[in-house]
Design a protein that fits this description.
5% helix, 3 domains, 2 helices, Thrombin, subunit H, 298 residues, 6-stranded antiparallel β-barrel, protease, globular, mainly beta
């Protein structure tokens, strides 16, 4: 077995958050409540070159709390190899840190909070096992990154469009996701699939080495679950009303696909797989025109 490095513990704050007086969660420790789905945090990185686990920590003041950050698939299963053909892995020199979605041979979409300098970012397609070179991976450099007025403190407009240095080779393992269009029915209580290499257990700090996915349900009345003003029209929510199914640390930037269409980007949430707080996703439908315009003109 490979040696692993235990990441630092979360901050030892004992303060409580009491923002939802009508909720069953009247008082929770901060470290038990918040999980902002950022690209790095108190989790184990998997490095594609060295195959060693490395630890990275990013601490940032966000909204009301200082916390450790990152993202995961809870309650899901390992998917068959290359069955999610649009799934991409964003990798830094340390290894995988965010997911992304291929929408065009030379373009992928991820979350704006997954940004790092393009010179440090690689996009890997036809990826399944992060610990093994399977011989099918396409590792591509990044030439340009575009954002759309991302508001870091509210996570509004959490979308990033990445131009690859050269087109990906489309084949049996790699195909772009379908964007929703005017004829696509509106989302209601649809069952969708979210995928990624994030951690697989609540409070775990170890990425899944293999791609996983879980089915979640669109939560149409999401604003009632969150503090006033946190959910904007550019966001949608998905999860399970009973809890136990969610994206979380390591899945940031990855795809939420509903009825065959790319509908959401893993963005943020409070806790992981909690029945009171479904995962929050960037609403792709609000950005289709922007995506298509940049792809056409850039």
């Amino acid at each position: 077995m490979r040696a692993s490095i235990r990441p630092p513990e979360l901050g030892a704050t004992k303060s409580s958050l009491q923002l939802w007086p009508t909720s069953a969660l009247l008082s929770l420790k901060m470290e038990e409540l918040y999980r902002w789905l950022l690209p790095v945090g108190s989790l184990q990185f998997i490095n594609m070159r060295s195959r060693q686990h490395r630890c990275g920590v990013l601490v940032l003041l966000a909204l009301l709390v200082t916390e450790s950050f990152s993202t995961r698939i809870i309650g899901g299963q390992v998917v068959p190899r290359f069955s999610i053909k649009y799934q991409a892995s964003l990798q830094s020199p340390r290894g995988h840190y965010c997911g992304a979605t291929l929408v065009h041979p030379q373009w992928v979409v991820s979350a704006a909070h997954c940004w790092i300098p393009s010179s440090l970012m690689k996009v890997v397609l036809s990826e399944h096992n992060l610990e093994v070179d399977e011989g099918f991976e396409q590792v591509l450099n990044v030439s340009q990154i575009y954002m759309n007025n991302f508001k870091y403190w509210t996570f509004d407009n959490d979308i990033m469009l990445i131009k690859l240095s050269e087109p990906a080779q489309l084949n049996a393992n790699v195909q772009p996701a379908a964007l929703p269009d005017a004829a696509t029915p509106p989302l209601s209580s649809d069952t969708c699939t979210v995928s990624g290499w994030g951690v697989t257990q609540i409070y775990s700090s170890y990425l899944s080495p293999v791609l996983r996915a879980v089915d979640v349900q669109i939560i149409s009345n999401c604003r009632r679950y969150y503090y006033w003003g946190m959910i904007t029209p550019n966001m949608l929510c998905a999860g399970s009303r009973l809890g136990g199914k969610d994206s979380c640390q390591g899945d940031s930037g990855g795809p939420l696909v509903c009825n065959g269409h790319f509908e959401g980007i893993v963005s943020w949430g409070i806790g992981c797989a909690h029945p009171y707080f479904p995962g929050v996703y960037t609403r792709i439908r609000n950005y289709v025109g922007w995506i298509e315009d940049i792809i056409k003109n850039k």
